[in-house]
Amino acid sequence: MANPIFREKLQAGTFFVVPGIQDMIAAVIANKVGFDIVYGTGYWLTASAWGLPDAGIATYTEMRNRMETLARTSNAAVIADGDTGYGGLLNVHHTVKGYEASGVTAIQLEDQEFPKKCGHTPYKRLIPAEDMVEKIRVAVDARSSEDFVIIARTDARESEGLDGALRRMEAYAKAGADVLFPEALHSEEEMRKACSVLDRPCMANMSNHGKTPVPPAAVLAEIGYAYAIYPSLTSLAAAAAMEKALLDLKQQGIGQPDGLFDFTEFCHLIGFPEVWEFEKKWALAK
């Protein structure tokens, strides 16, 4: 069941931030911090599960399973990266139905050819705007709940320029998209123009070291975005911390460095108290 909090936040018009979640460790840490919306990132969930690039290699079934696991683990509403819908119109229909049944609250669909590429990497190829319009219409028709949000993304900035990307966004809005996602804009000036001319809520993709600047949240709010996702933040922070710990172990033999997360607390975050209560109950029942 889609969580109404996402649509409520969009209607309230107050800017908010959404962290990307690459695995269930990140999910339980986000639970602790207290985010009420998180982003199931295709790039980083694929990297963490299979060690593969975000290039359309992971299948719909595999990604649905990952999103379902995230929706179960997270206390927050989940925005799910649905790539291209994994094929044509029938695939989009089944992807929307499947993701909604998996417990996510929103799906993001993009106008690349299948298989897709990460939006901040080269060699992206787009489908005609008319074909993406049909995908959005199918997606809107496929959802069961009005609380389930359809996000339309375009990767046209690189090949068609900003004006071409905005024309696509306008067409996708008319097709029924609830949120517009002009990917990989190159400057704050472009970001301001997109937010000023588009009449649906716009989201920003704050991909660290990608093509788009990453200004503070207050600046994004002033520009006019409804919200921003930070898909790579936890992944790159975790990778840097792991590399440092492993180098310390290899080079200096340090296996107990300062700054580790408390193990007992993590046991509680991941659900061990319920296991211990079960063991206590049934051990005493014997």
Structure summarized in a few sentences:
Pfam families: PEP_mutase (PF13714). With 286 residues, the protein is α/β, with parallel strands linked by helices. The chain has one domain: TIM Barrel.
Topology:
Blueprint: H1 5-12, E1 16-21, H2 24-33, E2 37-40, H3 42-50, H4 60-73, E3 77-81, H5 89-101, E4 106-110, H6 129-142, E5 149-154, H7 157-174, E6 179-182, H8 188-197, E7 203-205, H9 217-223, E8 227-230, H10 233-252, H11 263-270, H12 272-285
Parallel strand pairs: 1-2, 1-8, 2-3, 3-4, 4-5, 5-6, 7-8
Characterise this structure.
InterPro entries: ICL/PEPM, Pyrv/PenolPyrv_kinase-like_dom, Pyrv_kinase-like_dom_sf. It comes from Novosphingobium piscinae. By secondary structure, the chain is α/β, with parallel strands linked by helices. The protein has a single domain (5-238), classed as Phosphoenolpyruvate-binding domains (TIM Barrel), CATH 3.20.20.60. The protein is 51% helix and 13% strand. α5 runs parallel beside α6 (129-142) and α6 (129-142) crosses α7 (157-174). The longest helix has 20 residues, at 233-252. The two termini are 39 Å apart.
Q: What is the second-level CATH architecture?
A: Alpha-Beta Barrel
Number of helices: 12
Low-confidence segments? none
Q: Determine the N-to-C terminus distance.
A: 39 Å
CATH topology: TIM Barrel
Organism: Novosphingobium piscinae
Protein name: Isocitrate lyase/PEP mutase family protein
GO molecular function: oxo-acid-lyase activity
Keywords: Lyase
